[in-house]
Amino acid sequence: MQNITPSPLPTTRTAIVTGGASGIGLAIVEKFIQENIKTIVIGRDEQKLQATRERFGPLCITEAFDLNHLAGIPALVERLAQEHGQLDILVNNAGVNMKKPLVEVTDEDFQRILLTNVSAVFSLSREVVKVMLPYGEGAIVNISSMASQYGIPKVIAYTASKSAIEGMTRAMATELSPLGLRINCVAPGFIATAMSAKAMDSDPERKNKALGRTPMGKFGTPADVADSVYFFATEGARYVTGTVLPVDGGNSIGF
């Protein structure tokens, strides 16, 4: 992969991106670095974090941390604030999925998905908000999914978690926007990643069905999602809060 050279503009903002060492998260980090935003990438895979740091250079700071360890999140955020000062942007991108028929989903399965996709998002957001509030400004962007827009079989826990994320987005925006913070959400549709390509290419019927109900007739790219996240995170969206934006080529309104 080609290394990223930031523009010569001064660095004035600091962002946190969870799950930023692969897929959509990596594209978000790339966009931020290109725009000279110092970006703290939180993830669990040390090798991927190291590769991300080497690719993007000094504006990229990596933190190996398992966000399922809720009790450790306050200390993590406190340390990051001490080391980096004002935290301007939080992107809650980290998440896990599980494909299994509903009757086979155990209580433990369900709770495991909610822990990563909902509880960890809430805990991290709460602690970052505490850092943002004294400055009277900040932007949080949550990553939802097309699964929250309509029913998809065999992903009951994931669907529940992403629906919760959209509800949290609106509730947070209502409470925090009067205090200067903006909270928005991006809901990606079918995005072409290495993982999705493998799944789609092995199931032509599913791939054709997905494309057939997507008015734009193609899958999106991680960069498409990253551009929308950047919009919500920066000055262009200064009068936008509590919004859920499908980035799906029209899939959620297609027939």
TrEMBL record:
Q: What is its EC number?
A: 1.1.1.-
Is Repressor one of the keywords? no
Q: Which GO molecular function terms does the record list?
A: oxidoreductase activity, acting on the CH-OH group of donors, NAD or NADP as acceptor
Q: Which UniProt keywords apply?
A: Oxidoreductase
Q: What is this protein called?
A: SDR family NAD(P)-dependent oxidoreductase
Question: Does Oxidoreductase appear among the keywords?
Answer: yes
Which Pfam family, giving just one, matches this sequence?
adh_short_C2
Homology family: Belongs to the short-chain dehydrogenases/reductases (SDR) family.
InterPro entries named in the record: NAD(P)-bd_dom_sf (IPR036291), Sc_DH/Rdtase_CS (IPR020904), SDR_fam (IPR002347)
